Amino acid sequence: MNTVLLIGRILFAIVFIASGLGHLAKADAMAGYAKFKKVPAAKLSVLVSGALLALGGFSIILGVYADLGALVIAALLIVMALKMHDFWTQTDAQAKQTEMTSFLKNISMAGGALIMFAIAATEGSDYGWTLTDSLWQLSK
User: Which residues pair with 122 in a beta bridge?
Assistant: First the structure.
């Protein structure tokens, strides 16, 4: 079962590593979109969010404080969903649909990250091979 759990963590987290590295590699272009969405300190926000996404993804895959990595990713996804995918402000039907899809994707993945956090942070839980114990050991 440890192999299946590790594969699941890899499949879940790979998108965050790829996205985070994309933020870092394309920071200028992404900063332009972030400015359009009125993100303060747009380029810095893109760089910080990219680093946190990548580090959170690696944390989950490697099992290095995976509870913290999952919690950071959940928080980022919720903030990004609310700030970057504000479908409720769109007047164009196609733009509204695109933003709503992205919003729901981010919220859904945040839910998955919170589930992963809860499992990893629960005392005595087993979520596969890890390099470190969880940061938190919450009781059941």
Answer: 138
Q: How far apart are CA 36 and CA 45, in angstroms?
A: 13
Q: Tokens for 48?
A: 């910080």
pTM of the model: 0.93
d(CA 82, CA 106): 9
Q: What are phi and psi of 40, to 5 degrees?
A: -70, 145
Contact 24, 47 (CB under 8 A): yes
Kindly report the backbone phi and psi dihedral angles of residue 139, in degrees, each rounded to the nearest multiple of 5, phi listed first: -80, 155
Burial zone of 78 (CB within 10 Å; 0-12 exposed, 13-18 middle, 19+ buried): middle
> Per-residue confidence at 94, pLDDT binned at 50, 70, 90?
very high
